Structures are given as structure tokens and as C-alpha cells.
Amino acid sequence: MIQTPPSGPGAVPLLFQAEGLTKQYEVTTVLDRVGFEVPHNKIVSFVGENGAGKSTLFNILSGVVQADAGTMLLHGRPYHPTGYGPAAASGVTRVFQEQSLVGNVPVYENLLLGHDHRFARAGQFIDRKAMIAAAEALVEAAGIDVDVRRRTADYDFSKRQSIEIARACLAPLHLGGIAHPLVLLDEPTSALDRRDEEAFFTLIAKLKLVGSLLFVSHRLTEVLAVSDIIYVLKDGELVERLTPAEADENLLHSLMVGRTRAADYYHERRQRDVADAPIALKVAGLSNHGAYEDIDLEIHAGEVIGIGGLLDSGKSALGKGIAGVDPVTAGTVALGGRSAVRPDIGRFVRQGLGYVPAERLTEGMIAPFSLAWNLSLASGADLFTNAFGLWRRKREVETAARYIKELAIRSGRPEVICTRLSGGNQQKVVLARWLCRDPKVLVLDNPTRGVDAGAKEEIYRLIRNLTDLGVAILLITDELLELVGLSNRILIMQYGRIVAEIAAPADDKPGEREIVAWMLPQGTSDALESYTAAVGLAGHAH
């Protein structure tokens, strides 16, 4: 039973209230009579498994979808936005879980999107000089180092996320004249470089002085560190209201998933001894000038090799190069004892390699299409066509139904459109695409980004199941504990080169500080202290 906050003369005034919010899609109820309150100058967090209803709740609050039932009050007045524009005009803005920037326009246009009419002159001319000045004031207030004249796509994923955060958090104050904004933050830190996280937490501390924030994160340590109030969603219902003083990670996990978190979260006892196993993947002299240079590595069958580094280290670009997604300028890759060749994704898929990208909606799937269609996306030339080239629809549906059951894809049916799935369940669909091909090598780039604690544990178990079958895993991740817990060996990259190889046996895992020290350029002891402080906040969250 959720405890209602105190009311009366001494109570903190409310910025927002919701009561009885309900949303149903076909036969599935994704929100069931949800009610909560947001006081002024507070950070209110929502935690729950993927599919618990968090994104749907934010969609309703930001006007993206309409509730089937329920009422909302903003500043004590009825609030029922008919779209995102009216919600933003009322002072409710949002950082979406998946980035919503326009990549081929300058940063300043993205920052001022929806406010460009304020810079119109004579009804038809845009004062770009004034727009640039306003955008520069926003990024300065946000503490991010970007040139607002540059094309947005020229910046890495972390900087683009920082730009989106600055837009949502500061545009209502600086441009909209909203005295007390309500900002919805949906997994805002999942793509941030550790160096950008400090600016983010400083920004939300400032924003809390004038407005309130609703915060969703699967990093439970972050939630406990920044929140004033924590609500737990499970299967579309609010099941608990807590303060950080009343909770810890284990309690939140058990409330979210209905069980306590396993002590062996990364299944380290199942880590295989691969000393005598054959080589499954061999990389020799691989280069992509400007991204990475002269990379050599080997992975044994059943081994997990982790690659760590800052966002500018080149680790994600290396993953794409090894898989043959992006072209290389030099070097070769050999799979399973075959001849060394220049990487090519088409050839490698046929030889048993799978690749899971970091950005699932832009690179991993076509979300407006069905679950079954996305699952069969890599196998149209063989698994799901017959000898005459005809599509085997029955096999596609049966395969999709099998992996829906095996991976516990919630709300999943073969025909469901992937936009209807939560982020974690979308990630399971991307994984299933390669599992149905019985891969020998998997390249996984941040496979648990935006995934809740329960789903992470399922993915970790799946990785161990695959290594038991002899699958070699190349794991690229920004999560330190994931990197340490899952890997047999850890390769650290700086500026496109491997600078260290660290053994990580199951019974003698390296410490996080050792890993971080190798990630940072030598001689940056002050940076190491601030970096490990950030890791202490975000790196321990599962």
C-alpha cells in the first residue's frame, strides 16, 4: 500500500498531481490507476522493470499519448496536453530515452527547436545571430563544451545527449519564461561519458532550485543519490513510495522484480577456463585512421573479452570494424580458423558472427515493424526462405514465439510492433535476431544500456549460457562492474589504441580503480580522483 504524503498547512506545495492514470493497448493494461504527487523543488524518481509502465507514464505527462482514464493537475490547474508542443508550452519538457535531435542541422537549431518563432523578424526573417547567442547562453549555463554552430551529428553520442539535456532543462527557463518547470528525465545518463555526468548532476542541482524533476534510471545508485522521493512501478501499478533513507539497491530490486538480486549477479562462478579452447576470432593490424590503429587481439571459444575506455577511446568504432559494419583502412579478421580477410558483415554473418550495436533504435532495429520481422532481419537469405526464394512465414512466426518465451519478452507477440515494446524488450529482440542463427562469435556494444536490473541479470545469464556452448563474446561496455564481472580478460583503449590487457579470472577480479587508472591518460591524478567519484555514483548501479 502506497503511503500518501502529508497534506495540510505545513506541507510542501505541489507542482504536479496525478490520480487514476490508466492506459491500455489492446488487451494489455500498461498503466493501472496510477496516482502520485510532485512537490516543488524536488527530484521524484520512478523505478521498475522494462515494461513496468515508466515510458508510457512519461508519454502521458508529455502529451505524446493520451490516458484512457485519470486526471492531472499542474500548479493546481487541470492539465491535459494534446501533444508535446502544448506540454512544453505549459512548462513540461522531456529528455527521451532515445535521442530526438536532428543530426544534420547546427547545434543551436536543435537547442532552440520549437522556440525559433521568438527570433523571427518582420514575420519572415530569422535572426540567426540572436539564435546563436541564445544557444551559447544555454550551453554555458549547462556547463557543456560544444560549438553551437557545428553540425549536431559531428559530436559523439555523449555530447549529443548533453545537448538534449540542456534543451529540456534550460529552454523553459531561458526562453519560455516558465518560472517553475517540470522536467522529465528518461534514462538521461545512460549515454553520457563520465566526464559529462558531472556537468549533468550539477545542472539538475541548479534546476531543482527553481522547478522539479521526474527521473527514470536503471542505475539504482543514481536514483538513491539524487532523489527526494522514489516510486516503484511493477506491471503498470505503483506498488511503493519510499525516500532514499528508507531504501537501498537490494530493496528496490526486490520491489521491482519480485525477488532479491542474486549474490552472483554476473555469474562469475560460471566463467570458463579457455586456456585450451580454440581461437574463435583473430584480429591482426586492424586500423581505421582517425578512430583506431593497429589493433591485435584473439578470443577463444567460450571466452568473454571486455573492451573498456572513455567514449573517445575508439572502442565502439573498433566493434563496428571487427564486425564489418564499417570499412577499415588496414588489417584483417579471421573467424574460426578460416582465412584472414578484410571484415565484411555479409560474409561474417554467414560464417557465424553477430553484432549488437549500442544504439538499438537507430542501428539495431526498424521499430515501426513487427517483432517477428525484426527478429528475421539478418536471416532473410537463408533461415526464412526456401530453395525457391519464397518466404517461410510460418517458420518466422514460430521462431519469434520461441524466443519470446525463452527471453521472456514482455507484451511480446510475433505481430506486435516494436515501438510498443519497452527499451529492454526491444534489446531482447535484437539479441534474439542473432541467437536464432546459432552464432560462434558475438560482438556486443553496451548490450544492457537502458535495461533494468532484472533484465540485465537475464542478459548476463544468457551470456554465460552462450559461453557454455563455446560462443566467443567481444563485450564493449561503459559499465565498469559489468566489464569486470563478465570478462575473462579486459582490454583498455585510449585514443584508438590498446594500452593495457588486464587478466580478470573468476576468483581474482581486478578493482575498478585499476581499470579507471588505465582508461585515463597517464599523469592525470586529479582527473582520476574526480572520475572515480563519478564511478562511485554511477558505476555501482545495476
- The number of distinct helices, counting runs of at least 4 residues, comes to 18
Pairing-aware structural class of the strands and helices? alpha/beta
Rounded to an integer in angstroms, the radius of gyration calculated over CA atoms is 24 Å
The share of residues in extended strands comes to 15-25%
Low-confidence stretches: 1-6, 523-542
Strand order of the largest sheet: 6-9-10-3-11-12
Helix content: 25-40%
Please characterize this protein's 3D structure.
The protein has 542 residues and is of the alpha/beta class. Helix content is 33%, strand content 23%. The chain contains 18 helices and 21 strands. Strands 6-9-10-3-11-12 form a six-stranded mixed β-sheet, sandwiched between helices. Strand 20 and strand 21 form a beta hairpin. The longest helix is centred in the N-terminal third of the chain and has 18 residues. The relative contact order is 0.11. The N terminus and C terminus are likely disordered.
